[in-house]
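We close this part of the discussion by returning to an individual protein. Part of our work consisted of pairing the sequence of a single chain with a tokenised description of its backbone. No coordinates are needed to read the tokens, only the vocabulary itself. The amino acid sequence and the backbone structure tokens for this protein are reproduced below:
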Amino acid sequence: MAGVHGRDDPSHGLTDGNDLVVIAVPDDAIATVAAAIEPGSAALVHVSGAKGLDVLAGHPRRASVHPLMSLPDPTIGAERLRDGGVFAVAGDPIAWTLVAALGGQAIEVDDAHRSLYHAAAAVAANHLVVLCAQVERLAAAVGVPTSAYWDLMAGTLDSVRRVGAVSSLTGPAARGDDSTLAAHVHSLPAEEHALYVTLAKQAAALAGTTLQPGWDTVDRERSGNERPRD
């Protein structure tokens, strides 16, 4: 038996005649859904990156398979799942079999490190999107298309892949150019200030440079850079 079962479909018999049952629901609902499924010969598999195997308690065969990739919609998600990506697995050996069937690479992440593994994934995906959104806003403020920055962003990621984060770092924070950083801060809309300053300080720390005190402060009333309020 194979198919998709929704929240309103009966769960009786799901583990009969199947090799595995995949639970693809929000993290906080996994335990409730698993408890509603009768234990049987099939392996119960969840796809959460943060949850361990304990949320599948009561089932003799338990596993987790988390795709380490961005799945923004069903079409793109289906393509990436079949495109040989990386999956974090744990538990029953069927997890490795499932990843192999998708043409992917399996890496084992045990329950003790699950939350930290998923935190890194959130930084790599979600936090990166937050930075891209800031690029969009700042580019729009000066009338430059965001696409003008795409090659820069892609090239930076490629550099990190090739030589690592520290060796890829460039720019004023890495060089210790305090006056340039101060000019950036003065030009930024007030609502963009905190994110920029936080990351510039982290960039300087990563590069091992020392910035002069005061570069990150700005008198908005004097500078005239306060964005008009509606």
Summary: DSSP finds ten helices and five strands in the chain. The first helix runs from residue 30 to 36. Strands lie at 20-23, 43-46, 62-67, 86-91, 105-108.
